[in-house]
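Q: My labmate handed me this sequence with no annotations at all. I'd like to see what the chain might look like in three dimensions before we decide whether it's worth expressing. Could you predict it?
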Amino acid sequence: MLFDTHTHLNVKQFEGEIPELLQRAEEFDVGRMAVVGFDTETIKRSLELNQMYDHLYSIIGWHPTEAGTYTDAVENKLMEWLPEQKVVAMGEMGLDYYWDTAPHRVQQDVFRRQIRVAKELNLPISVHMRDATEDTYRVLKEEHAGDTGGIMHSFNLDTYWMEAFLDLGLHISLSGVVTFKNAPEVKEVAKAMPFDKLLVETDAPYLAPMPNRGKRNEPAYVRYVAEEIAKLREIPYEEVARQTTDNANKLFGLEK
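A: Here is what I predict for the chain of 256 residues:
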């Protein structure tokens, strides 16, 4: 069974469809999912969903595009929510210089503050990084983020940066991008990754893999990600499913 380590079942695009989405996921061999909350509304919905379904877990934090709204009150609320039993990591946090909705210095400060909260609570982190590779690496290194572990979510760089983030003690998670014909560097990462540090995800409703590229993504489609990795590594799909799920369970502190 697969573990979709980053999905957004808590957004409006999926409203009213959760039972059907979970049924399809089960048919596609998806056993567990981490529902990622990134602002107050989506965090609350993630926490609701993990109480409704045994196989759903929460990752909660403050997205870099929301960095301008991060306050002491937000941080206090996060510290109230994070110790809940089915919260397995903190995030998604990080830097996003593509949308650039907050000054870089503000984003970096909010990123650092969240890493410190995660370390205080001994939680791994889920890292969002867009057009900000060098600064993301620098912040993670300076804050010793690997001490509690974490995930470079939807990784889309080359093997050089793969090695750099692995050296910080982080996992690499591959999304539907690995199935795209115009992503040869990500395919090389899929082949080169140490198997015990590899995770899979959808980032649904975004980044749908082939053969559904351009459509709305959903947790079931993490199967296509795993199948592509299996093809690239020239090993059985079942081996990828077993190893990536074991990796996720271990990182999140869950029993098999």
